[in-house]
Amino acid sequence: MERYTIQQRVEIVKVYYKNSCSVRQTFHELRNIYGRNDRPTERSIQRIIAKFEQSGSVADRAIPLRRRNARSKENIDAVAESVSEDPNLSIPRRAQAVGLSATSTWRILRKDLGMHPYKIQLTQELKPQDHHARRTFTDWALQQLQTDPNFGEKVIFGDEAHF
Question: Would you state the torsion angle of the CA atoms of residues 20, 21, 25, 30, taken in this order, to the nearest 10 degrees?
């Protein structure tokens, strides 16, 4: 259906009731106003009249906008309190604790609280004797490089996580 202005729709309704509620007669009379090829179709006339009789208006219905309430003041406060209680909690677990989706929790952390959440990676804890062992190895490797210029080509270094 083509879009008609409110004034055009009102005119169509007036012509419809003036012609004893006849869509066919309204269609023929609108030829004088709109011309032969630019007048509304009978189906368009029926839709405009149905809208008028149902709602009492020919104006378009307001489409309700979806309310986004996940980032409300209460939810922001709940996430902020959760962070202060346990800053090491993952986003999915924090979201479950405060009753929000993980995406909403992430948005609150980023946009409202100015935080940059990241994935926590587990690493091996370094012990005091680890420093001495690393230093001993590097001293030995440096000595081997000085005595044998091809030592670097003979050694394969790898990451044990990938083997």
Answer: 110
CA distances from 134 to 126, 129, 141, 149, 163 (A): 11, 9, 11, 22, 21
The C-alpha angle 25, 26, 31, rounded to 5 degrees, equals 100
Rounded to whole angstroms, how far apart are CA atoms 140 and 130? 16
Per-residue pLDDT reduced to its tens digit, 133-151: 889 989 998 899 899 888 8
**At which residue do the structure tokens 């001293």 appear?**
139
Picking from 116, 92, 114, the residue whose alpha carbon sits closest to that of residue 105 is 92
Rounded percentage of the chain residues whose pLDDT exceeds 90: 29
Coarse DSSP helix, strand, coil percentages of the chain, rounded to the nearest 5 percent: 60, 0, 40
- Residue 18 neighbours by CB under 8 Å, 6+ apart: none
